Amino acid sequence: MGYETAWIFWGTQKTPGQREHPRSAGSIGQASDPSRVFKGMKMAGQYGNKRMTARNLEIIQINKENNQILLKGSVPGANNGIVYITK
């Protein structure tokens, strides 16, 4: 996720003079002094890839021959992903 989306910034100017990176953060620090980026600088980061829990899904059918469970409702995650079912 870019810094504009993460921190609700407007980015740089959207004019013909700005052509390469209108959604980039630009400069993140000073020159030779203090030669570092201060803590808490708002930057881009990870978005998503978190564990999700779907509660109260109804079991429609259990197929023991094919080792399948048919649920009513949406299940979070990628296609062919691993799903843990608890009571």
Strand order in the sheet with the most strands:
1-2
The topology string of helices and strands comes to HEE
Estimated helix fraction: under 10%
Shape category: elongated
Number of helices: 1
Query: What is the count of β-strands?
Result: 2
Low-confidence stretches: none
Report the average pLDDT across residues: 85
Structural class: mainly beta
| Terminal CA distance | 35 Å
β content, as a range? 5-15%
Gyration radius, rounded:
23 Å
Largest sheet: 2 strands, antiparallel
Explain how this protein is built.
By secondary structure, the chain is mainly beta. It has one helix at residues 3-7; strands at residues 58-63, 68-72. The chain has a two-stranded antiparallel sheet. A hairpin with a 4-residue loop joins β1 and β2. The relative contact order is 0.15.
Quick take:
Helices cover 6% and strands 13% of the residues. With 87 residues, it is mainly beta.
Write the SSE topology:
Elements: H1 3-7, E1 58-63, E2 68-72
Antiparallel strand pairs: 1-2
Characteristics:
single chain, 87 residues, 6% helix, 13% strand
